[in-house]
Design brief:
- The structure is a single chain.
- By secondary structure, this protein is an alpha/beta fold.
- The chain has two domains: 30-115, 3-Layer(aba) Sandwich (Rossmann fold), CATH 3.40.50.10860; 140-262, 3-Layer(aba) Sandwich (Rossmann fold), CATH 3.40.50.
- Helix content is 43%, strand content 15%.
- It is built from ten helices and eleven strands.
- It has helices spanning 7-29, 44-60, 75-87, 106-112, 124-131, 140-151, 171-180, 195-199, 245-248, 262-284, and strands spanning 3-4, 34-40, 63-69, 93-96, 160-164, 184-188, 204-207, 225-228, 232-233, 239-240, 254-255.
- The protein has a six-stranded parallel sheet with strand order 1-11-8-7-5-6. Strands 3-2-4 form a three-stranded parallel sheet, with helices on both faces.
- Strand 2 (34-40), helix 2 (44-60) and strand 3 (63-69) form a beta-alpha-beta unit.
- The longest helix is centred in the N-terminal third of the chain and has 23 residues, at 7-29.
- The protein starts with a strand and ends with a helix.
- The model has no long low-confidence stretch (mean pLDDT 96).
- The protein binds NADPH dihydro-nicotinamide-adenine-dinucleotide phosphate (NDP).
- NADPH dihydro-nicotinamide-adenine-dinucleotide phosphate (NDP) binds next to helix 10.
């Protein structure tokens, strides 16, 4: 039977550490870390994420501001808000919930966020810093996965690490972090030939494609560590991952469940990035 990597418990432990560090930071500097969360439009799933982010802020002792803008918000209006937040000393981190409605230019918007406040680490400046291994912030989902591995006593060093999915927010940064942790990394995507031959080589397999229950036992090497990033809704509304948990769990040595695996860590890493941003901006002031 595989070890179940409990993202909920690990996330609570990390949040408790962040809360303690925040209390100390406030005492030493008189500064409260502040996060602004901006959402455009009515997407119900995005609204839930935004609410969870603000609740997490309260949990660790941060100040937070929420901006819920109508779907018809213009690029100029959104950038004016970001500009105001860039200059606001109470705010150390700015998060604009993606995706934006189609009439808005995401790339341009990301460029308008001050890289020192870019706690999602999506600004090209921060993406570049990750490539050279000198980063202030890491994108929250891959950073959360590295934390799960470390706290479960799993090292990437010398291992065959296979990441399936090459998005800018999950697959690519995940591969970079595993490479920096001395893994031998392969990245697969929708054009990869003989996918299961490659996934069967993996000592650590990261599934991040957004296809429910896609990875079955025959695609996994016995004893592999399986990290399931997928968050897919079944027709009955239940959340499920990219990994067919029932068939893979008996084959793996460790596995993350969905829900309760990678998901809870993502917001926790956002809190970590916000505290770091507050520290850096306070040190520089
Ligand atoms: P994207 O849709 O941006 O990327 C999906 C990637 O998977 C692409 O690179 C695509 O390849 C690849 N892919 C799709 N189908 C296949 C296939 N059949 N075989 C091999 N590769 C395939 O998704 P994201 O990276 O944003 O998210 C991935 C999943 O992770 C989603 O379920 C999402 O909900 C979840 N997620 C979970 C988070 C969490 O906190 N737990 C946070 C972020 C995302 P190609 O590039 O060739 O198109």
């Amino acid at each position: 039977m595989a070890m179940r990597i409990d993202g909920k418990a690990i996330s609570q432990a990390v949040r408790a550490e962040i809360a303690a560090e925040t209390a100390k930071f406030k005492e030493e500097t008189g500064v409260t870390p502040g996060l602004a969360v901006v959402i455009v439009g009515e997407d119900p799933a995005s609204r839930v994420y935004v609410r969870n982010k603000r609740t997490a802020c309260e949990q660790v002792g941060f100040y937070s501001e929420g901006y819920e803008l109508p779907a018809e918000t213009t690029q100029a209006e959104l950038e004016a808000l970001v500009d105001k937040l860039n200059r606001d000393e109470k705010i150390h981190g700015i998060l604009v919930q993606l995706p934006l409605p189609p009439h808005l230019d995401e790339e341009k918007l990301l460029l308008s966020i001050d890289p020192r406040k870019d706690v999602d680490a999506f600004h090209p400046y921060n993406v570049g810093r990750i490539m050279i291994g000198e980063y202030a912030f890491l994108p929250c989902t891959p950073a959360g996965i590295m934390e799960l591995l470390t706290r479960s006593g799993i090292s990437c060093e010398g291992k065959e690490c296979v990441v399936v999915g090459r998005s800018n927010i999950v697959g690519k940064p995940m591969a970079m972090l595993m490479l920096q942790a001395n893994g031998t990394v392969t990245v697969c995507h929708s054009r990869t030939r003989n996918l299961s031959e490659i996934t069967r080589r993996a000592d650590i397999l990261v599934a991040a494609i957004g296809k429910a229950d896609f990875f079955t036992a025959d695609m996994v090497k016995p004893g592999a560590v399986v990290i399931d990033v997928g968050m897919n809704r079944r027709p009955d509304g239940k959340l499920t991952g990219d990994v067919d948990y029932a068939s893979v769990e008996p084959v793996a040595s460790a596995i993350t469940p969905v829900p309760g695996g990678v998901g809870p860590m993502t917001i926790t890493m956002l809190m970590k990035n916000t505290l770091r941003a507050a520290r850096e901006q306070t040190a520089r002031a």
